[in-house]
Amino acid sequence: MKSKIFAIFTILLLFNIAVLAEEEVEDVTDSSGLQPDSPLYFLDKAVDGLKLAFTFNEEKRARLELKVANERLKEVNVMIQRNRVESALKAQEAYQKRLEQARNRIQKLKNTVGAEVIAELETEIETQELLVEDLDAASLLPTFEEKDKAQVKNLIQNMKQVSQETKERLQERKEELIQARENFQEQFQALKSASIKPEIQNRIDMLEKKIEVSNQILGKRTDNTAEENSNLKLAKTKVEEAKAALEAGNYEEAKALTLEANKLAVLVRSVAEEAKERIRNTKEIALTREKIQVRTEALEREKKQVKSAIETLKEKEETLRERQQQITVKKEKLEEENQEKTVTNAENNKNVETATQQGRN
């Protein structure tokens, strides 16, 4: 009983700290949630592990594994932009692990799986492919030391490979379903169009914001080159072409145009990214002591709660033990009294028999 209660309190502790940490991180980072460079990053992964552990439906689990992989991929992107290669590698390992699990689960999906599930999975994988390409573009920024460039290149290559392998596995499963079920192809295409279109639109919206930031950077700089101005102008053109392709239903063309626009926008941000990184590091150093203090206090409060619960449990166990001893004593006393009564009754019966016998004589 004590071990079960302790386990429950431990799980609650993990969730509470994770929520607290996420709220703190949101104040100091451009991305929500715990990041791989955080000392509490393991809590984020633990919470994801709990969600997966309590998801028993194969379809839902495959979708959740891809969603978790997508989160890890975004973390890699953030770490690359911050020039934190070791943390990026940590997130990349978690990404590949979840993606491999999803790939194996896709192969096990039953023939009764809905077309909407396959459409969602394919959309998620294609979205991840675009994010990996964005990583490739981010690696063009001249912020890496020579020793890190090879690691970043290898990291991106590995992610492209595992993403491609997952896409191929899903394609094989999709073709099997097309052969096994009538009208599956038509249903899939309609659902795929409905799911991929908003993803591309979100990407276009993100690019317009990125281009606006790049435009502001060029506006503040006095050393702009004709090439940089030309790249930014061309990026805007590519985004407009992507919008037109999206409206026409040419989704592959729209995705390709967003990739080209993103690379062009990144190229004009290289100088600003270096300055931004220095400013971010300064802020984080200034906030380190305060964050550690807040987290330490939170941990202490949770430890006290767990300790109090354990002490209460011990007191209840002691009370229960005393009651059991009292019951045992009463039971033994009652048995002794019953034995004495039995002996007394036997003696009385014997005396009665003796007296009766004497009276007859």
Arithmetic mean of pLDDT: 76
C-alpha termini separation: 71 Å
Subunit arrangement of the protein: single chain
Shape: elongated
Structural class: mainly alpha
Strand content: under 5%
If you compute it from the alpha carbons, what radius of gyration comes out, rounded to the nearest whole angstrom? 34 Å
Largest sheet: none
E-strand count: 0
H-E order: HHHHHHHHHH
- Low-confidence runs: 4-31, 274-280
Number of helices: 10
Amount of helix: over 70%
Which features does this protein show?
361 residues, mainly alpha
Quick rundown:
With 361 residues, the protein is mainly alpha-helical. It is 86% helix and 0% strand.
Describe the protein's architecture and organization.
The chain is mainly α and 361 residues long. The chain has a domain at 34-181. It has helices at residues 2-25, 41-53, 58-81, 85-108, 115-138, 146-180, 184-220, 226-247, 251-267, 270-360. Helix 1 crosses helix 2 and helix 5 runs parallel beside helix 9. The radius of gyration is 34 Å and the shape is elongated. The termini are far apart. The model is unreliable at 4-31 and 274-280 (pLDDT under 50).
